[in-house]
Amino acid sequence: MAQGNPATTMDEFMKGLWRENPVFVMLIGMCPTMAVSNTVINSLAMGACAIFVLVMSSAVVSLIRKLVPKEVRIATFIVVIATLVTIVDYVMQYISLPLYQALGVFIPLIVVNCIILARAEVFASRNNVWLSSVDALGMGVGFTFALLCLGTVREIIGKGAILGIPLFGPNFEPWSVMVLPPGGFFTLGSWLLFFNWLRERRARKLKKAE
Amino acid sequence: MDQSVWEILFNAAIVNNFVLSMFLGICPFLGVSGKIDTGLRMGLAVIFVMLVSSSCAYGINVLLLRFHAEYLRLICYIAVIASAVQLVEMFIKKFSPALFRALGIFLPLITTNCAILAVALFQTMREYSFVQAFAFSFGGGVGFTLSLIIMSGLREQLDLADVPSVVRGAALGLLLAGILSLAFMGFAGIGG
């Protein structure tokens, strides 16, 4: 395998970050994406948890990929992921209780996040440890990037602040709806609209160039 | 927790609707809801699995508390859900092949529906009794089915409409869901 080849490694990383971004392109892992992205700090915390679980689970799955019989592989992957998430659950409680309460049920729900199981099944069970970890890291960073895209917009409009620092002064009336559930749907919908528009514009330009 | 059963049921189904106000089970909500018919079937399968897995999870939790092994909770729950789905699948296949064919790929997919695991986790967190837990999971399932049906009804109509190409696909679905979610916020004052 291309263990030391920097081009392939970089490619695997960028794939997760942009070309196959789990949220914006593949539309998986939506539940935590919208539920916790109401502020920037929540987005960052969720992203960090997801990156940890993704990278560790991909590495472990890739290590044991030759030992696990094919019939029980999904069950094995889920047990590996659930163990890692339990660790994250306890560590988060220790690091910051308010943050843990803000993320709430969505930390244990990382277990059923489709991104993690998909990476284990599609990539880690077929590639070596190094490539799998890089792929998982790319996906995790892509996921965090998407969370931040949502979180920034929602916090600025919904609370008139960023990272808790007020931006607009006392006369600004925040659109509280953006921090509430409907805001999550609207923001992600608008981002998708924006990306669709970019894609169409590029396609039109290519056509003109021909 | 001394809420009445009806209160819990109504809260879970309408006021704190799983899909529209708690963001659980968005993947099937956006993926499956193309036709009313499939939406309804998917919803029924989810209600069924929810009831089975939440009853099992209640039993498991009692056992784990007795042996002081709460750290195993998450692993046990996910194992229970996966096997419940498997059991339900075999049961339906045996007793109603027609229904089995109709549900098709949806059944195994339910394992990764986060609403199911969330029901088990919430009922543990809020320390519901067995009857309350049953009502909660039933209400949650009904709420999920309700939102799936509303969404697929809207989608069916939209297929006939002439929308700009930029909006087509997931973006439109999400904007619609946002509007629906706004509407469901109107219930917030009723149960709390």
Give a topology summary.
The complex is a heterodimer of chains A (210) and B (192).
Chain A lengths: L5 H14 L10 H7 L3 H24 L9 H23 L1 H7 L10 H11 L4 H31 L1 E2 L2 E2 L14 H29 L1
Antiparallel strand pairs in A: 1-2
Helix pairs in contact in A: 1-7, 3-4, 3-6, 3-7, 4-5, 4-6, 6-7, 7-8
Chain B lengths: L4 H11 L2 H5 L3 H7 L3 H31 L6 H23 L1 H7 L2 H4 L4 H12 L4 H31 L9 H16 L2 H4 L1
Helix pairs in contact in B: 1-9, 4-5, 4-8, 4-9, 5-6, 5-8, 8-9
What's this entry about, in short?
The complex is a heterodimer of chains A (210) and B (192). Chain A has 210 residues and is mainly α.
Describe this structure in words.
- Chain A has 210 residues and is mainly α.
- Chain A has helices spanning 6-19, 30-36, 40-63, 73-95, 97-103, 114-124, 129-159, 181-209; strands at 161-162, 165-166.
- In chain A, strands 1-2 form a two-stranded antiparallel ribbon.
- The termini of chain A are far apart.
- The model of chain A has no long low-confidence stretch (mean pLDDT 85).
- Chain B is mainly alpha-helical and 192 residues long.
- Chain B has 11 helices and no strands.
- The A-B interface holds A 27-28, 30-32, 34-35, 75, 78-79, 82-83, 85-86, 89-90, 105, 108-109, 111-114, 117, 177, 180-186, 188-190, 192-193, 196-197, 200 and B 20-27, 30, 71, 74-75, 78-79, 82, 111-114, 117-118, 121-122, 125, 165-175, 177-179, 181-182, 185.
What's the average pLDDT of chain B? 83
Shape of chain B: globular
Biggest chain contact? A-B, 40 and 41 residues
Element order, helices and strands of chain A? HHHHHHHEEH
Helix proportion range of chain A: 55-70%
Main pleated sheet of chain B: none
- Give the terminus-to-terminus CA distance of chain B: 14 Å
The largest beta-sheet of chain A arranges its strands as 1-2
Q: Give the count of helical stretches of chain B.
A: 11
Strand runs of chain A, count: 2
Approximately what portion of the residues of chain B adopt beta-strand conformation? under 5%
Secondary structure tally, helices of chain A: 8
Estimate the global geometry of chain A from the Cα principal axes: globular
What is the average of the pLDDT values of chain A? 85
| Spatial separation of the terminal alpha carbons of chain A | 39 Å
